[in-house]
Amino acid sequence: MGLALALARRAEAAGEVPVGALLVLGEEVLGEGWNQPVASHDPTAHAEVVALRAAAVRAANYRLPGTTLYVTLEPCPMCAGAIVHARVARVVYGARDPRAGAAGSVLNVLEHPVLNHRAKVLGGVEAETSAMLLTDFFRARRGAARRP
User: Residue 7, class by beta-carbon neighbours within 10 Å (0-12 exposed, 13-18 middle, 19+ buried)?
Assistant: First the structure.
C-alpha cells in the first residue's frame, strides 16, 4: 500500500484527486496508476483503470487472474466493473468512499453473487493516511476557491 500512497501523491502533485493504485502478481508489479482524468481529458482515467490498462499490456492479456489490486480509495462502480471483467482476484483498499464506493460502502459490485466473477475485498488498509490525503486535498481546493 506504500507504493499506492506514493502514486496518490503523484496525482496530487499534478492537481488530480490523490488516488493511487497498483496491480501485483505475487511480488511483481504488473501495472501502476494514479488519477489522471483532468490531465488526460479522459473520464475513465481513474487510478485503478490506468493500473489495469498497464498490467494488461504487460501481461499481453485483458484477463488478470491471480492478481491483487492495491488502491488508496474504495473503487467506484466503473472501476469495480473493470476489476470484475479483468478477473482480478483480490482488492485491497485504503479509505472507504461513502458516496460512490462499490466494494461495500454504497454498492458491492466486487462481490455481487449474480456476476460471473467475484474479487475478495479487504478494506481499511492505511485508511487514515489515504483519507487524510483526500481530506487535505479537498480542504486546500476549497480554501483556494475562497481566496479573492
Answer: buried
Write the single-letter amino acid at 145.
A
* Gap between the Cα atoms of 18 and 122, Å rounded: 20
Mean pLDDT of 15-37: 98
Could you confirm whether 128 is annotated as catalytic? no
Q: Which residue has the cell 504487460?
A: 58
Burial of 20 by CB count in 10 Å (0-12 exposed, 13-18 middle, 19+ buried)? buried
Active-site residue identified among 12, 48, 74, 126: 48
Query: 82-111: per-residue pLDDT in tens?
Result: 999 999 999 999 999 999 999 999 999 999
Can you tell me the distance from the alpha carbon of 64 to that of 66, in angstroms, rounded to the nearest whole number?
7
CA dist., res. 72 & res. 107, Å (int)? 18
Rounded Cα gap, residues 107 and 135, in angstroms = 22
